[in-house]
Design a protein that fits this description.
Radius of gyration: 53 Å
Strand content: 5-15%
Subcellular location: Membrane
Number of strands: 9
InterPro entries: Immunoregulatory_rcpt-like
Largest sheet: 3 strands, antiparallel
Helix content: 40-55%
Keywords: Membrane, Transmembrane, Transmembrane helix
Membrane topology: Single-pass membrane protein
């Protein structure tokens, strides 16, 4: 019996020692990963160890769960990225407003696909403040006088070929039809009529009358002129008055040159302008035309001269200066062809006295 009673006491001692060892050993945390180390085998866990492990891994009464902490951190990261993106967007937008913007062109179709091309916008600060760098140089006097010389020769040949110097009757000319011509030449209507009827002066008088009928339409001062309709309307708005004001004259001069530069091709002349010119000449020159001459051929030749004059009119218009034809004559001589005067220079200032580009052709 004595041996039997000592065995349970030994078992109790072992169990008590094992329980003490398990209680004093530190609890293992479930949420802290670590590399397990090889240790000596321990005693099997009891209920007390399991309870301690559960209490250490559960939520704390005074702390924040680990999942909530991770969620807050991710939310802050997303918010920071969004704020940074907004700041970058506004900085780039501000930079584009300061001159580095990109302008989108309309959609273009190429290679079977629609594409949107972008080109940098040229800011106004890069454009030169003066347009003079883009305007052509004025023509030399020789280029202008060359055209005037051609018209003079054509008129001389036209008068010789299609008009006679035979005696004419006084009733063939109506002085009322000579009013504008007499005013331009500063001749009395009676004196102008005499020059037409005089056989010795008729050819030169007819040349002067044709030159006035045609060339007076080249400087834009007459309502019916040889300039394009749009240009003619502006010229009629008071261009001669602009010559007395330097600011207006300068603007007017620039407008002419810019218009001529942009319209690289001379605008087509209205057929009515040529017809009106020929009809005005026929009112006086009808009685002096040669008999037996093909009328269509004469009119065609005169149309050619008017076309040359229209080209001269456009040339004079596109120059920075302004020009006038001087048809004035005197009792002592007959002017067969007018002078061409430059009224304002290339700087839009009035030239006083006017500069003569083409001398009058005077017959004593």
């Amino acid at each position: 019996m004595a041996g039997t009673e000592e065995r349970p006491q030994a078992v109790d001692t072992v169990l008590s020692s094992s329980s003490t060892t398990a209680t004093n050993s530190p609890a293992v945390s479930v949420t802290s990963p670590s590399i397990p180390r090889q240790t000596a085998p321990t005693a099997a866990p009891n209920a007390t160890n399991i309870q301690n492990s559960i209490e250490s891994s559960g939520p704390r009464k005074n702390g924040v769960p680990a999942g909530a902490v991770a969620g807050v951190a991710i939310g802050c990261l997303i918010a920071g990225a969004a704020i940074g993106a907004l700041i970058l967007f506004f900085l780039r937008r501000r930079k584009s407003r300061n001159g580095s913007a990109v302008r989108q062109r309309p959609l273009e179709y190429g290679n079977g696909h629609l594409r949107l091309e972008k080109t940098p916008v040229v800011t106004t600060t890069l454009v030169t403040s003066s347009v003079d760098n883009y305007l052509p140089q004025p023509l030399e006097d020789a280029a202008i006088t060359r055209e005037v010389s051609m018209i003079s020769d054509h008129l001389k040949n036209h008068v010789r070929a299609y008009y006679h110097t035979h005696p004419a009757k006084a009733e063939d000319i109506n002085e009322a039809d000579l009013g504008a011509f007499s005013s331009a030449t500063e001749l009395e209507t009676s004196e102008a009529k005499r020059l037409f009827l005089d056989q010795s002066t008729r050819s030169e008088t007819i040349r002067l009358f044709l030159a006035w009928t045609i060339l007076s339409r080249c400087d834009g001062t007459r309502p019916q002129n040889l300039l394009p309709s749009g240009v003619s309307a502006i010229m009629q708005s008071g261009s001669p008055a602009k010559e007395s004001n330097l600011a207006e004259a300068t603007l007017f001069s620039k407008w002419k040159v810019i218009t001529g530069t942009l319209l690289t091709k001379q605008p087509t002349l209205s057929p009515n302008a040529i017809a009106d010119t020929i009809a005005e000449a026929a009112m006086i020159l009808g009685p002096f035309t040669r008999k037996g001459i093909d009328r269509e051929q004469r009119l065609k030749n005169l149309e050619m001269v008017v076309g040359r004059a229209a080209s001269l009119a456009w040339t004079l218009f596109t120059q920075p200066g302004s020009y006038r034809f001087d048809f004035r004559g005197s009792r002592d001589s007959v002017v067969a062809f007018p002078a061409l005067l430059q009224m304002t220079g290339d700087d839009a200032r009035v030239v006083s006295p006017p500069r003569v580009l083409w001398e009058k052709e005077i017959v004593a």
